[in-house]
Amino acid sequence: MLSFINWSPDIIAFHIFGFPIRWYALCWCTALYLAYLNMHRLYRQQKISDALFEPIFVYCFLGVLIGARLGHCLFYEPGYFLTHPVEMVLPIRRFADGWKIVGYEGLSSHGGVIGLLIAIWLYCRKTKMNIMHVLDNMGIITPLSAAFIRLGNLMNSEIVGNATDLPWGFIFARNGEDFARHPAQLYESIAYLLFFIAIQIVYHHKKDKVGSGYFFGLCLTCIFTFRFFIEFIKADQVAAEADFIINIGQLLSLPLVAIGIYCLRGGKYCRLLAEKK
What is the pLDDT of residues 105-152, one digit of tens each? Predict the structure, then answer.
């Protein structure tokens, strides 16, 4: 039988010319690189020109990063960051002994989705690509990237689960704890990997659905339905959540699940956007 896992990895993977490279950053870079490769594969399969593919990575990279950062700051800690706007934008924090580079400590998946949607809208406006086609392609590839981002959270010992006596519980020693918690980040990462595999299988059999909103809806529904329920075994991310019936992550997940189901069912506006050239 497994015993509790004492989890205390060094958050620094290695140094380049004295500059620390965190595991979290590596997981994010891996997530974005895999998204790039998978999107390129889809564009080639669908015979879409490289000229239309090349700009999408820049749009989506900036959209996800800016959206995820602003989402965390405004959804979870608005009181702090609205009075410290510099720290919202730059990866620095002011301590008693001065400013220090801390990286972007806090990125929201819900904010990332909002930023991504805005980026895709701008990309489609610029390239004249059909927005439902791009959203479906994004839905096909996103779960794999989400899996690696959650691994980054695990390496940071953040977004932890509630206390547990299950034998696979993690003791997050870096957080100064000596008891086991659910490794909620790992649960999410495994779930998103399984969603990615399942969506690839569905895509193989239903390629004609690309452009209808079906895969975008499938992705949103799977990820954020799971996200809603996994929150019940997660520790609160901010103190105010202790008084909530459902937490901030769950509140933000509900409209995304609703949008996902609407797209899966081929709602009126999905059909209109799918027909728009």
Answer: 677 888 888 999 999 999 999 999 999 999 999 999 999 999 999 999
Backbone angles phi, psi at 220, to 5 degrees: -60, -45
> For residue 148, what are the domain limits?
17-275
Residue 179 belongs to some domain of the structure? yes
* Residue 215, in any domain of the structure: yes
Residue 84 located in a structural domain: yes
> How many domains does one find in the chain?
1
Q: What is the pTM of this model?
A: 0.89
